[in-house]
From TrEMBL:
Ranges that cross the membrane: 20-38, 129-152, 172-194
HAMAP family in the record: TolQ (MF_02202)
Keyword Cell division: yes
Protein name in the entry: Tol-Pal system protein TolQ
Origin species: Variovorax ginsengisoli
Protein origin, superkingdom: Bacteria
Topology versus the membrane: Multi-pass membrane protein
Keywords per UniProt: Cell cycle, Cell division, Cell inner membrane, Cell membrane, Membrane, Transmembrane, Transmembrane helix
UniProt subunit comment: The Tol-Pal system is composed of five core proteins: the inner membrane proteins TolA, TolQ and TolR, the periplasmic protein TolB and the outer membrane protein Pal. They form a network linking the inner and outer membranes and the peptidoglycan layer.
Main location as per UniProt: membrane
Length: 237
């Protein structure tokens, strides 16, 4: 291989088969990683938008029954916060229909339903995040494996030469190092995206937990109002 052939494409074409397979694997993983990054970005953006929209409706003064009716009709397209609210209200109404009058039982049932829904929603939001973490942690080592194999192959070929110079060593070493470079190319975007998405998901989780507590407090005030109307102010929610 002469000096004009030291391009990445030429190096890969002249690399040994194991190195080529490693590079091909890393390219496939990188493409899948970028696809997961874009899907997760738009999914989190939509989740934040739906949560903010429902939160505005929730605090706008609309009655809980109206919000629950809307959430039930819009269940397929609702956001995590709206589905958590619907789970809590559904359990609350079921217990009331069974003539459960104990305030603690009603609140505990509603809270447990919201917590179960919260965990399901969080699992859905975190989907594909572990894939990005795996790509970010494993890709450099896969690339390093390709590099080590390529260097071994290059030195094996040089052993048969009577005279070894830099021009004979450089192409074999360069084609081996390409695997490490592509491994880093696959890993770095995945690590950056994982860290950013993890922070976004933490913010969403905190917002959902805060909503559960606020909604539980609202249910408690409503129950207290039914038991002792004079003990609450007319301000309601």
């Amino acid at each position: 291989m002469n000096q004009q052939d030291l391009s990445i494409l030429s190096l890969l074409l002249h690399a040994s088969l194991p190195v080529q397979l490693v590079v091909l694997l890393l390219i496939v993983v990188s493409v899948a990683s970028w696809a997961a990054i874009f899907r997760k970005y738009f999914a989190l953006k939509r989740t934040r938008s739906l949560n903010e929209e429902f939160e505005r409706d929730f605090w706008s003064g609309t009655s809980l029954n109206e919000l629950f009716s809307s959430a039930a009709q819009n269940a397929k397209f609702a956001g995590p916060m709206e589905r958590i609210f619907a789970s809590g209200m559904r359990e609350y109404q079921k217990l009331r229909e069974r003539h459960v009058s104990d305030t603690g039982t009603l609140l505990d049932g509603s809270r447990r339903a919201m917590r179960a829904s919260y965990q399901r929603e969080l699992d859905a939001v975190e989907q594909n995040l572990s894939f990005l973490a795996t790509v970010g942690s494993v890709s450099p080592y896969v690339g390093l494996f390709g590099t080590v194999w390529g260097i071994m192959h290059a030195f094996t070929g040089l052993a048969a030469l009577a005279q070894v110079t830099l021009s004979t060593v450089a192409p074999g070493i360069a084609e081996a190092l390409v695997a490490t470079a592509i491994g880093l190319f696959a890993a770095i975007p995945a690590v950056v995206a994982y860290n950013r998405f993890a922070r976004e998901i933490d913010k969403i989780a905190i917002a959902l937990e805060t909503f559960i507590e606020e909604f539980s407090n609202i249910l408690q005030r409503n129950l207290t109002a039914h038991v002792n109307p004079a003990s609450v102010t007319p301000a309601g929610r």
